[in-house]
Amino acid sequence: MAARVSGCSVQDFFDKLSFLGFQIDGVSVQVDELKTHLPAFFISLKPEQIRELDVRPIIDANNDPLPLIIKMVRNLQVGSTLKIINFFEPTPLLALLEKQGFEYFADTVDKDLVETYFYKKSEIEVDVDLNSGEGWNDYLEKYKNHLETIDVRNLPMPQPMLTILKAIEKLPADKALFVYHKKVPVFLLPELKEKKFDFRIKEISEGQVQLLIFKE
User: Fold this and answer.
1) pLDDT grade, residue 70 (50/70/90)?
2) Is the Cα torsion angle 117, 122, 123, 129 positive or negative in sign?
């Protein structure tokens, strides 16, 4: 990875380390083994193909990096890669963009630093359309005695989405899941549709969103 970022070959990188006094054992074997576990786009990636976004300051400020990520993804040129630097692997984002035709590679640098690369293979559209709140009161009345409730407002990312997905796995067919959330969970919605769940959203105020999730 260091060789790729600096724009030199892996062998050149090791040669420089040797010049500085480092001992390199079994370089060719290690490099070959490493390549077998990397996607082809990542092996041939050049620095000029990469756009970088560090979302850690955005998250630290208690803001949502999603709008900026989606904007950058949509503006990404074919053959280019968006590198996202985060505290964790962005699991919901991986699922969404993979379905839209992106290739990705997530590199865990350490326990609090993950660099994820999204490679744009072709012109595609990232679908983040939202279902409206139409029929909210009707569905709430329908399930009023058959509701299971969870509150994910104070959970750190990506726990809100993971908690909701875990809850619907055990949700009986005749019940609905009522969720207290602080934002519209854009990455969750395609997952719900894929799992044959319907939903309604009610935005109360900034930082206050309610969701009703039920079987289609």
Assistant:
1) confident
2) negative
